[in-house]
Design a protein that fits this description.
Radius of gyration: 26 Å
Largest sheet: 5 strands, parallel
Strand order of the largest sheet: 3-2-1-13-14
Number of strands: 18
Bound molecules: zinc ion
Distance between the termini: 50 Å
CATH architecture of the largest domain: 3-Layer(aba) Sandwich
CATH topology of the largest domain: Rossmann fold
Shape: elongated
Structural class: alpha/beta
Length: 533
């Protein structure tokens, strides 16, 4: 047996200033698939995330709603937790950047970068609004994107994802009052990203086949331009304090604080469990680091997180797998709560069963290109693949009219072989991050089982030849028992019920066969037909 690996899976930290929608979940669900799969394989898995609670979008929102930023952040943090609970996300820890533990550890990591010479001070002119009498953050500036020409906020271009440089921001106007900004000297701390150019280039090359192609391309784009140093302090009173004298009125930029959450979560959970957090984050510990998020988050993981880890000079292991999805759109438009496009995650969970939502977000996932969510497609997936194929196999076998128990019989050799192959093939697909294809491969096994059932006509066998009837039902039941393992990463609720019906133990990523007769009790259909509302 191969050695147990230490696998860290980081799910992107959702930003606590508006509701999660299905587009966010399409990027995040990959993390839960991987976490569940690697646990079934017997690895040491830590799956972590949390709510990203700092930064100006939250202070802006608070101002608008006449609340304080903490109230806004905790409102959405609570909502996110509800969504993840109902969708059965199996985080080992879901925390927030507002936790004292996180703040304290981030300050230590920040100080280390400073002591190692990767954070430096610079006095430089910054955008200042005379009317509002304050230095403006990137988001508080409006400008024409120098790359694509669209009107955009200064933090990142919605259209082409370009992040404007300090220089480019100077020509902008104040988003609040429309005044053209002036330049005024400000004391700023910078992260010397340029010093990591070579090492990040090397890491990107090493990961050519293990990062999703969009992660490789997006990162190479930045490397080609040459990595630019980035400001890490801002003039704000909401966020993590700078652990250096003379910066009392400034706070850390949210991007440096949030990407370190993966690390601080690991430290926290390992402290609680009495294990060494370094097993997940240092070189030579037989470990793998996965990061799961949407494509707009790529460079924060491939460049910034890796640079901060390198800058610690403490033998950190860098990100191995970047599972970056394209966008899930709603009827060809970007999900947007403010514009009323699409439905939020909570609304979807009111309408649809959790397992089916997970299944559809994966089988229709934006792995290599943008995909669309429509209620019609969702209902088709649910009624077609999930109910008519998978659900039907279970019903017609375990709820066969008058059947009270599954009798022991013998397995068909070719069915055994098919089951064994499914673990290998589906496992390989999941490890290659091809989750859509994994669901296709599983449906093939379900279709095979339904065909086997039809061809044997157990409704006739039962009257004519009870031995062969028992054999058909026994073989189908064994396939179902294995589907309860194979589908566990995708539909955990249904799989738990099947294992309960068949009195199976814990799910594992290996073939399981019925070893003694099973009394069938209280078997309910797992899925109900949905109507398009
Ligand atoms: Zn642009
Ligand atoms: Zn202004």
């Amino acid at each position: 047996m191969e050695e147990r690996k230490n696998i860290l899976i980081g799910g992107a930290w959702p930003y606590a200033n508006s509701s999660l929608h299905l587009g966010h979940l399409a990027g995040l669900i990959s993390g839960d698939i991987l976490a569940r799969y690697f646990r079934l394989k017997g690895n040491n898995v830590l799956y972590v995330s949390g709510s990203d609670c700092h930064g100006t979008p939250i202070t802006e929102r608070a101002k608008k709603e006449k609340k304080n930023p903490k109230e806004i952040a905790s409102f959405y943090d609570k909502e996110f937790r509800e969504v993840f609970r109902r969708l059965n996300f199996s985080y080992d820890l879901y925390s927030t950047t507002e936790s004292e533990f996180h703040k304290e550890k981030v300050q230590i990591l920040f100080k280390k970068l400073y002591d190692n010479g990767y954070i430096y001070e610079k006095i430089e002119p910054q955008a200042f609004c005379e009317k509002c009498n304050k230095f403006l953050s990137d988001r508080e500036i409006k400008l024409k994107c120098p790359v694509c020409g669209e009107e955009t906020k200064g933090d990142q271009c919605d259209n082409c994802l370009h992040i404007p440089t300090g220089e480019e921001l100077i020509g902008g106007t104040c988003i609040e009052c429309g005044t053209k900004t002036i330049r005024k000297d400000n004391k700023i701390l910078y992260l010397a990203l340029s010093k990591f150019q070579k090492e990040i280039e090397q890491r990107t090359k090493e990961c050519e086949d293990t990062w999703r192609i969009n992660a490789k391309n997006e990162t190479e784009k930045y490397l080609k331009q040459g990595l630019l140093d980035r400001a890490v302090t801002r003039d704000l009173d909401w966020g993590i304090e700078i652990p250096l004298e003379g910066y009392e009125d400034k706070r850390m930029y949210v991007w440096i604080d949030a990407v370190l959450g993966y690390l601080t979560d690991t430290m926290k959970i390992c402290e609680e469990r009495g294990i060494d957090w370094q097993d997940f984050w240092k070189e030579g510990r037989n470990n793998l680091i996965y990061m799961c998020h949407g494509k707009d988050n790529i460079v924060f993981h491939s460049i910034i997180l890796n640079a901060i880890l390198l800058g610690q000079k403490e033998n950190y292991h860098l990100v191995d797998r970047i599972v970056s999805t394209e966008y899930l759109n709603y009827k060809d438009q970007k999900f947007s709560k403010s514009k009323g496009i699409g439905i939020t995650a909570l609304e979807a969970l009111e309408l649809y069963p959790s397992d089916s939502l997970r299944y559809h977000l994966i089988s229709n996932g934006p792995e290599k290109k943008d995909t669309n969510f429509t209620p019609e497609d969702f209902v088709n997936t649910h009624n077609g693949e999930i109910l008519n194929k998978f659900g039907n196999l279970i019903n017609r076998t375990l709820k066969f009219k008058g059947l009270e128990k599954i009798e022991m019989s013998t397995m068909e050799e070719d069915i055994k072989k098919k089951i064994e192959n499914a673990y290998i093939e589906v496992g390989n697909l999941i490890e290659r991050l091809e989750f859509r294809e994994a669901t296709n491969r599983l449906i093939e096994l379900v279709e095979f089982a339904n065909k086997y059932y039809d061809e044997n006509e157990p409704w006739k066998q039962r009257k004519e030849n009870i031995e062969s009837f028992n054999k058909t039902i026994f073989n189908c039941t064994n396939i179902i028992a294995n589907l309860a393992n194979l589908y566990e990463p995708i539909m955990p609720e249904a799989c738990a019920k099947i294992r309960q019906y068949l009195k199976l133990g814990q799910a594992k990523w290996e073939p399981v066969y019925i070893e003694k007769e099973i009394i069938l009790e209280n078997i309910e259909p797992l899925f109900e037909r949905l109507k398009l509302e």
